[in-house]
């Protein structure tokens, strides 16, 4: 997807696009929206919005509860008085005074967070800045809602004709279903009007034609297209392109809208089983195909599995670790499909033979290609994408120490993956035991994990093989602090 800077203005980059970008890149940090009158913040963990705050008075919890009829004016005034005296949170004060029960407080906080975020969709001119890094963790009540649904509800509140028209592509643009399963299979509760518009968007009609042929008003038709385009379910393609898009050929509207029904325990068991065997599964096994499967079968399986293991499914699960597991499986499936598709395009006829030597040559070439792709993604800051490509490189050609070294580097940038980074570096050391850089890098991983004694040992080994190694020298100094 298009690269979006982490700092800019909402006039340059629309708020929905910023949220989608942060979600797809699984960013953790704080998105700050600033105007001369107020500042609003959205806190994200791995691309999901979990909390929001605002300096605008009407966004405060007390005001929200008052407007919703959950408390009276007298109760509101009393809570504000105690808030000023004690500094405690207004919600906690209202519960302690007996004005509000915990259930209503839970509802109120979630409602407040959503309303703060929805209100930002109506702002046309503001500065934004995304500060990557850890976020405050004191919030007990957090928002559990898919980014797709959040954007869907927010965009529906926009009624400015000129803004919608300016943010949409040109009227001559042909719209088609997205070819990206993560956009197609989002957890979004579409209206009947939205579903009807999706059903006639077949990849051959322009925006103008879709509006002209609609049974609703031109504004409502354009707004419906704007909503579907903003959440990523529709995308533009060049007018006159004859060939249908991947998604159009592979999935129907029923496939997109029909919820994936599977009993939660059975689903969790399947997720755990795949996760525990992920490193042992070939890309063909991941997609539940074989090397002789045709392109259509490969594609259909990819979309079916993408829907089944879409990260949005975690919102309805009671397993707190399910999101990371689903994300890992989804990424592996996508990488497997991309690799197989690229392989089919470049694969000469003789590769289909059973001669091991030819297969090894091909795998080594493909491994180098995956390595280059991984390094490129690493430079862009896409650490998940980098680790996926580099992991495939190590599978295809496991005897190249540089593949393991770069895989370790990419994994070390991902939260909670230091153990995996350590294992990748140990593999590099096994293959190249006299390379000081491997030991220095391993020392840095141990430092990040708080294991100074282990780090010290690795830095000493690095110095042994390269007395002038700067990172090892600096690392030794840090272990003494």
Tell me the layout of helices and strands.
Elements: E1 7-9, H1 15-24, E2 29-34, E3 39-45, E4 48-54, H2 61-67, H3 73-86, H4 90-96, H5 102-121, E5 127-132, H6 147-155, H7 161-167, E6 174-177, H8 181-184, H9 192-200, H10 207-212, H11 218-230, E7 234-237, H12 246-250, H13 253-257, H14 264-277, H15 283-286, H16 295-308, H17 322-346, H18 356-380, H19 383-396, H20 401-412, H21 418-431, H22 436-448, H23 452-465, H24 470-479
Antiparallel strand pairs: 1-5, 2-3, 2-5, 3-4, 6-7
Strand content: 5-15%
Q: Looking across the biggest beta sheet, what order are the strands in?
A: 1-5-2-3-4
Most strands sheet: 5 strands, antiparallel
Approximate shape: globular
Binned, the helix content reads: 55-70%
Low-confidence stretches: 240-244, 349-360
Q: Kindly, what is the distance between the CA atoms of the first and last residues, rounded to a whole number of angstroms? A: 44 Å
Overall pLDDT metric: 86
Structural class: alpha+beta
Rg, rounded, reads 26 Å
Count of distinct strands: 7
Total count of helical runs of at least 4 residues: 24
Short description:
Helix content is 57%, strand content 8%.
Task: Report what the structure shows.
The chain has about 475 residues and is an alpha+beta fold. Among the domains are: about 140 residues, no CATH class; about 100 residues; about 90 residues, DnaJ domain (Helix Hairpins, Orthogonal Bundle), CATH 1.10.287.110. The strands form 2 sheets. Strands 1-5-2-3-4 form a 5-stranded antiparallel β-sheet, covered by helices on one side. A two-stranded antiparallel sheet has the order 6-7. The longest helix is centred in the last third of the chain and has 25 residues. The protein is globular.
């Amino acid at each position: 997807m298009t690269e979006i800077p982490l700092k800019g203005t909402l006039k340059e980059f629309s708020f929905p696009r910023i949220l989608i970008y942060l979600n797809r890149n699984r960013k953790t940090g704080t998105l700050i929206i600033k105007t001369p009158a107020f500042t609003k913040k959205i806190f994200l963990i791995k691309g999901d919005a979990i909390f929001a705050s605002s300096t605008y008075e009407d966004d405060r919890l007390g005001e929200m509860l008052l407007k919703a009829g959950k408390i009276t004016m007298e109760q509101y005034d009393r809570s504000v008085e105690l808030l000023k005296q004690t500094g405690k949170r207004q919600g906690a004060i209202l519960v302690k005074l007996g004005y509000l029960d915990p259930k209503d407080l839970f509802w109120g906080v979630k409602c407040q967070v959503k309303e703060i975020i929805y209100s930002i969709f109506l702002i046309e001119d503001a500065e934004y800045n995304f500060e990557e890094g850890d976020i405050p963790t004191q919030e007990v009540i957090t928002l559990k809602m898919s980014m797709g649904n959040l954007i869907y509800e927010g965009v529906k509140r926009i009624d400015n004709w000129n803004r919608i028209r300016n943010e949409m592509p040109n009227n001559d643009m042909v719209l088609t279903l997205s070819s990206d399963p993560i956009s197609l299979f989002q957890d979004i509760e579409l209206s009947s009007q939205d579903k009807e518009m999706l059903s006639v968007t077949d990849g051959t009609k322009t925006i103008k034609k879709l509006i002209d042929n609609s049974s609703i008003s031109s504004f409502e038709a354009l707004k419906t297209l704007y909503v579907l385009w903003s959440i990523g379910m529709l995308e533009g393609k060049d007018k006159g392109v004859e060939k249908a898009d991947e998604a159009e050929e592979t999935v129907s509207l029923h496939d997109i809208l029909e919820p994936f029904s599977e009993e939660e325990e059975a689903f969790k068991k399947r997720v755990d089983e795949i996760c525990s065997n992920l490193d042992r599964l070939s890309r063909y096994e991941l997609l539940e195909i074989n090397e002789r499967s045709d392109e259509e079968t490969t594609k259909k399986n990819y979309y079916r599995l993408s829907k089944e293991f879409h990260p949005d499914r975690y919102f309805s699960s009671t397993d707190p670790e399910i999101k990371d597991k689903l994300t890992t499986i989804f990424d592996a499936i996508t990488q497997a499909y991309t690799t197989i598709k690229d392989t089919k395009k470049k694969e000469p006829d003789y590769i289909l033979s059973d001669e091991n030597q030819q297969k090894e040559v091909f795998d080594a070439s493909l491994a180098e290609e995956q390595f280059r792709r991984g390094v490129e993604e690493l430079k862009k800051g896409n650490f998940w994408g980098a680790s996926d490509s580099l992991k495939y490189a190590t599978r295809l050609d496991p005897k190249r120490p540089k593949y393991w070294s770069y895989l370790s580097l990419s994994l070390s940038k991902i939260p909670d993956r230091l153990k995996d980074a350590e294992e990748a570096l140990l593999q590099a050391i096994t293959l190249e035991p006299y390379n000081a850089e491997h030991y220095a890098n391993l020392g840095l991983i141990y430092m990040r994990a708080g294991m100074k004694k282990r780090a010290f040992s690795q830095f000493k080994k690095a110095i042994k093989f390269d007395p002038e190694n700067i990172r090892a020298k600096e690392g030794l100094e840090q272990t003494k602090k």
